[in-house]
Amino acid sequence: MSLNTHSPSQEKVLVIEAESIVGDKIASCLRQEGYNVALVKNGVDGLKQIFDILPGLIILDITLPGLDGYDILDKKQAEPMLAKIPLFLLSTQGVPINMRRVPPGSVTEFIIELHVDPAEILSKVNRHFPHKGETVPAASGADAITKKKILWVEDDKLIGTILSKKFTSSGFELFHAKNGEEALDILKTVVPDAIVLDLLLPGMSGFDILQKIRADEHLKNTPVIILSNLSKPSDIEKAKILGARKFLIKAASSLDQIVAEVKEICK
Predict the structure, then answer these.
(1) Contact assessment for residue 219 and residue 252, using Cβ atoms and an 8 Å cutoff
(2) Could you read off the pLDDT of 37-53 as tens digits, one per residue?
(3) I want to staple 239 with a disulfide (CB 3.0 to 4.6 A). Which of 67, 209, 244, 252 is the partner?
(4) Quick one: which of 63, 64, 62, 55 has its CA closest to 30?
(5) CA-based Rg of the chain, rounded to a whole angstrom?
(6) Considering the entire predicted model, what is its pTM?
(7) Backbone phi and psi for residue 138, each to the nearest 5 degrees, phi listed first
(8) Do residues 4 and 116 touch, judged by C-beta distance below 8 A?
(9) Per residue in 184-194, pLDDT tens?
(10) In order of start, what are the domains of the chain with their CATH numbers?
(11) Are 51 and 82 in contact (CB under 8 A)?
């Protein structure tokens, strides 16, 4: 596995391709365009990289040693935080795609080619990232060194790991608590810019935490985003009554959407 890094603003693309010549050509073409490319050549490492680097786009061949492309699709779609990562499914050398094994909504684009044209793949990737190449002004002064502080309260180990990586790579200073007691201990010494809160937690519930936050003079104005799989109107209404600014459903929210909402609420 090789990873090319230049700038934190680069879009990350994960290429999972067993054929060395094909994979190297695709990766080289994307890197020349300025993409941050990770290339792996088997399914087991490919699945691990999806979790580890949280790419903005995956290019996945269906024919792989270890786990094949269909296995990776199944495992990716089983995790709500990963399911919404866009994916191009690649079939080369005349290998047909078995559509019965492709989970609904799991593929952004199908690329079926007898001989892969890296330039064509690059064109598709560029269309997927329409704002690539735009210049983002560099932060200066206090803005360059001040990170927004986020308290993220979530007991699910996998989701916690995935979203923690996303928050950190997006430039936040992250404090992660696995339950209400840990969250309240952190809040004794830290006043975050925003709190992202699950509702179903061991011991103290998210609703209980919300009530304690609103009763604290130092914390009552801290914006809170609920991120939960509870989706009953009564749960949403209760959270809003207790002061939550936003209510996001885990299964319906992409990683980028969650980060965008947190950035917006921190302004």
Answers:
(1) no
(2) 999 999 999 999 999 99
(3) 244
(4) 55
(5) 21
(6) 0.69
(7) -75, 140
(8) no
(9) 999 999 999 99
(10) 2-128 (3.40.50.2300), 142-265 (3.40.50.2300)
(11) yes
